[in-house]
Amino acid sequence: MTSISPDSLPRFTSIVSTAFSSAAFITANLSECLSIPPSQITLAHLREYLAPVIVRSAEDGALLFQAGDWSAVSLWQRHSTTPTPTTTKLNPLREEYKRKIAAVKNKYLPPTPSFYYYLDFLARNPDAPRTPGAVSAVIEAGLERARREDCPAWLEAVDQHVVKIYEHFGFRLVEEVVVGAGRFDARGGLEDGGCGVSLYAMIWLP
Q1: Which of 101, 122, 97, 63 is nearest to 180 (CA)?
Q2: What is the value of pTM for the model shown?
Q3: Which residues lie in coiled coils (predicted)?
């Protein structure tokens, strides 16, 4: 397991983009951001969207890891439990997401310490052979930092399958959060009266 240097960010972005190309929340979010139907979203759209997000996170001190010769990657951010309000205008889905997730965090994150580690991205490289232990390495790299600083970790899983993976590492599912109900179906496609997209809020405590 190794940390990622700035010149490797394009490779990191490419892996994350490919791995998340069918993630319902990202599909729905991009649809609103770009004002196009989800069916028209391409991998190039996703890379263009994620690249500045990942670069900005790296510049702000996020922890980026790869293991197994890029078989798996992760991005961890150290967040305050009282974040500074953003002045950036968000699309309706993103605004709903931030509001609902903030409410769930307020319910479950302990009041002390005043920070936690957030697993923003975990991705297995679909274009590389699976290396045993690679996913474990990039998850444990962030959790080790949380243990060292005696603080919680948090994530939102994009589907129920990965919930089981995170539970293996000690995360606990606290709530299912649904966004976009009435506008999107479960896969992030446009649908009047749709059930919305589910995210699974999970916490890890030292």
Answers
A1: 97
A2: 0.93
A3: none
Please name the CATH architecture into which domain 2-204 falls.
3-Layer(aba) Sandwich (3.40)
Token representation of residue 183: 């506008």
Mean pLDDT, to the nearest integer, of 128-143? 94
Calpha distance 6→25 (Å, rounded): 27
- Cite the DSSP H helix spans in 62-205: 92-108, 134-149, 160-168
E strands present in the chain: 2-3, 63-67, 72-80, 115-124, 153-157, 172-179, 197-204
What kind and span of H or E run contains 18?
helix 9-19
**Residue 21 to residue 27: CA distance in whole angstroms:** 7
Two tokens at 41? 């979203």
Between helix 24-34 and helix 43-59 the angle, nearest 10°, is 100
| Distance, CA of 51 to CA of 136 (rounded, Å) | 25
Identify which of 49, 58, 79 has the alpha carbon closest to the alpha carbon of residue 3.
Answer: 58
Q: Any idea what the Cα angle at residue 64 is, between residues 60 and 67, rounded to 5°?
A: 175
Q: Which two tokens stand for residue 39?
A: 């069916």
**Residue 94 DSSP label:** H
Residue 118, both tokens? 């957030």
Distance CA 174, CA 185 (A): 23
Average confidence (pLDDT) over 164-191: 96
pLDDT at residue 1, rounded to an integer: 61
Q: Of the candidates 180, 149, 178, which has an alpha carbon nearest to the alpha carbon of residue 79?
A: 149
